[in-house]
Amino acid sequence: MALSKIAGIGMYAPQKVVTNNDLLKYMDTSDEWIQERTGIKERRYAHRTDETTTTMGVAAATIAIERAGITAQDIDFIIFATLSPDYYFPGCGVLLQRAMKMKEIGALDVRNQCSGFLYALSVGDQFIKTGMYKNILVVGAEKHSFGLDFSTRGRNISVIFGDGAGAVVLQPTEEADRGILSTHLHSDGESAELLAMYNPGTHANHWTEQKLADFDDAEIAEMFMSHAMIDKAQLFPYMDGPAVFKKAVEKFPEVIMEALHKNGLQPTDIKILVPHQANLRISQFVQKKLGLRDDQVQNNIQKYGNTTAASIPIALCEAWEEGKIKEGDLICLASFGSGFTWASALLRW
Predict the structure, then answer these.
(1) What architecture is the 3-173 domain classified under in CATH?
(2) Is residue 37 very low, low, confident or very high in pLDDT (cuts 50, 70, 90)?
(3) Model pTM?
């Protein structure tokens, strides 16, 4: 059975750079406060109207396809991971297929937030292994900036996130011990509401203190999207930062070691660990727990912020472009995020 390899990789970061000091115009914060808690110095924001999650995905995909030595017409399946789609429906997969004038191929949308890219990569890996597809495009893209609360009230979340996209082309390889060695996916929905965007949604306040019995029919009809939600700032993401941090520093090392043990390897065998860029403090904690050197961990959250599903392919692409990854190197990818979901992938470049 052939393994799947990353045959091409690309990334896209919007031109607009937003520093921590730039955010002082909107909220009571400081460069020191943000860096101390997250390690972030700046992030990129997409153009408000001219760029979308899909257009950024197309930009990254175009580079990945070119580097794979193929054309858009050669792609036979699309997997698009994002939490910030252009539309509530349809998903970004078909929009990318249309924009890149691809054949009438399948397009799958993955909604696993910070773990979205690794879930998508794992799905693509299975399709390659079974021989169903030969050229799979896996995209992670996010446009967070359009949906953040730029006020002091929302600063704990808004200072963290940025926009961008990354993409890879998966192809089969007959080379022994080359490509994706294994992927590992997990979830625990017990604490799903600790990191979530509740509205708009169909829950009808199921997970809030106010139950349906407290509303009349007219109010219930407006629950998907209402003026009250806007007035009460209920259309923004919510995060219990300390609870997420506590869980992340537990599951990140656990899922990395799972991948290594599966393949009879140790942390010292890793050339580069590419963690989802959630928080520099989380990455530093994981690095210390696994006993890795600074040069063994790829961090770029300092200049891009947390780009959720895009963060791993962006960081992986930069590491490759900077010459940190050579053929035969052992690469570990890992993520933890909303759901909660967490995942890892081990690959031989």
Answers:
(1) 3-Layer(aba) Sandwich (3.40)
(2) very high
(3) 0.94
